[in-house]
């Protein structure tokens, strides 16, 4: 494996006295999709928040492109090349699509480069060009997710973190979004993906980690995980007709 | 006996817990979206599906009692439109309207899988010929076992219940090797056979799968002796699925619970407080995979104890003790709590008593009267009055030592207490009519 762009070692974090992450380590290299699988409550979203500086760490280190970023404020991390697409998207609803995208580039200075990136994002998600003037709140769920990803890409990240991007979306939209993620990987972006739909995640990921109550209990290539008995029985099983 | 589905039935318990958590989260989201009753109950508690982050969080969910299912009669607790429901069953509804339950195609698939497990654990193989002397119709007992036994590959005779002579004819002519019915009906079949001079022990019958009513070890021993079979107990209730919820393996040391499809808790029957493993209390069941009729924390009113220690058979699924009593069949007689099962257990300890009895509670003025009417073997009846009095006294003392109350014991001749083809009626509480 090439040198990881993102390296997480023995991460510990929590809320108040409740410790949620109990020593999590993982790597993401350029040009790979790495997924984290686990139940709600396993600590996946907390891990995303801890890596991106939204949560105070009680232990462990985070390294980006070989430089320690442990304890760095979120806005500085964006400048260094770490972008998060949060669960629930967190868009600015009354602002237009174009304004939301522009906000994604607020850490940057070169107008030419920003314009190039905007063009690129709009090529990935043509609907964002079509609806550039519309308030973000008027977009469909799938379009909002595209906007959230587009906004994150406007910071020109080296590593993109996505928290539950498929949540509540129609299968067709999910396929479109994951098609774009596949393309970004091919261009060399490192992607860390938290996804409740383990079937979907393992289909697109190169490697994965299984988390349970704040620990990584299993790691391997996506194929190894998909063939693992535990993963197959617990995370890939279908029930309630909808999974 | 072979484990039908080793992947799940012998899953490491840690993996099983994670599977249960995933399925619980899925179920809570499912009912919150689809069943107004549960959405209101969760909203009232300020609980969202996302708040279920560990198995202990099941305690955030409301208990569901039978009344909720009655109040929403007939379809109010269905989570899918009727177009997706392929089967409807209902409870016997001895009091008022019955409880109506539904199944999707997926639910029927799960159900067959679980009853196939039960049958396999009881020793049934594809080579067996299984006589279903269970009520069919709206009752879940017959149908549930029927499909599982077919899935397992055994040959099913859907005899239904009743017409005991015909049951015996089939047993002899069709070469029945396994019998499925209520334990009380099994005894009745034995009795009819004995009277007709049919030697059941000479028939190929070797297994009995019993459910539908609580029964004790005394009853089991009696059935095994008289029918010459291995008797296993299985458990289920229509409100959560029907038979298939749990069943004994050949070691007869408790009923393995289908923990991959249900979450089981034991709570204090009055306070609803969760009790630790190993303590007796009321069994609470949450369905984990049901689509049409999921229930959260359903109060079974059945008293049991859960044991998660490993079983010799290799199954990792925890075991529940045979249900001997229900919280709602507890009688309060002269202020004392009495379970009919306690009286039954006392009776089975006495030589010469037939397993047919009825407990009659009445009120004379302000005083509760307890009468236990029992059938005794012919040879017990003696011309010597003193012998009869002594025997009656011995039975009364035995009952007194178990429940602490004096009971009037009446001996009746064999065959005089009403037989049933389904669930036996052992208690007549005349006070309720007052």
Overview of this structure, please?
The complex is a heterodimer of chains A (243) and B (434). Chain A is built from 10 helices and 10 strands. With 243 residues, chain A is of the alpha/beta class. Chain A has 2 domains: 1-81 and 157-243, Rossmann fold (3-Layer(aba) Sandwich); 90-156, no CATH class. Chain A has a 6-stranded mixed beta sheet with strand order 6-7-8-3-9-10, with helices on both faces. In chain A, strand 4 (57-64) and strand 5 form a beta hairpin. The two termini of chain A are 32 Å apart. Chain B is of the alpha/beta class and 434 residues long. Chain B folds into 2 domains: 1-327, ANL, N-terminal domain (Rossmann fold, 3-Layer(aba) Sandwich), CATH 3.40.50; 330-433, GMP Synthetase, Chain A, domain 3 (2-Layer Sandwich). In chain B, strand 18 (353-364) and strand 19 form a beta hairpin. Chain B is globular, with a radius of gyration of 22 Å. Chains A and B meet through helix 10 of A and helix 2 of B.
Strand ordering within the main sheet of chain B? 4-3-5-6-7-8-9-14-13
What's the pLDDT, averaged over the residues of chain A?
Answer: 93
CATH level 1 name of the largest domain in chain B: Alpha Beta
Strand content of chain B: 15-25%
What form of chain B results from the Cα inertia axes?
globular
Summary tags:
heterodimer; A: 243 residues; alpha/beta; Rossmann fold; six-stranded mixed sheet; 37% helix; B: 434 residues; GMP Synthetase, Chain A, domain 3; 2 domains; nine-stranded mixed sheet; 32% helix; 24% strand; globular
Summarize the structure.
Chain A contains 10 helices and 10 strands. With 243 residues, chain A is of the alpha/beta class.
Question: Would you spell out the secondary-structure blueprint of this structure?
Answer:
The complex is a heterodimer of chains A (243) and B (434).
Chain A: E1 4-15, E2 18-29, E3 33-37, H1 44-51, E4 57-64, E5 67-68, H2 74-80, E6 82-85, H3 97-104, H4 111-124, H5 126-130, H6 141-153, E7 159-163, H7 171-186, E8 190-194, H8 198-204, E9 207-212, E10 215-221, H9 222-227, H10 229-234
Parallel strand pairs in A: 3-8, 3-9, 6-7, 7-8
Antiparallel strand pairs in A: 1-2, 1-4, 4-5, 9-10
Chain B: H1 6-9, H2 13-34, H3 36-45, H4 66-71, E1 87-90, E2 100-103, H5 105-122, E3 129-132, H6 140-152, E4 155-157, H7 164-175, E5 178-181, H8 183-196, E6 207-210, H9 217-227, E7 230-237, E8 242-248, E9 255-257, E10 262-267, E11 281-287, E12 298-304, E13 306-307, E14 319-320, E15 325-326, E16 331-333, E17 336-338, H10 340-348, E18 353-364, E19 367-376, H11 385-403, E20 408-412, E21 427-429
Parallel strand pairs in B: 3-4, 3-5, 5-6, 6-7, 18-21, 19-20
Antiparallel strand pairs in B: 1-2, 7-8, 8-9, 9-14, 10-11, 11-12, 12-15, 13-14, 16-17, 18-19
Helix pairs in contact in B: 2-3, 5-6, 7-8, 8-9, 10-11
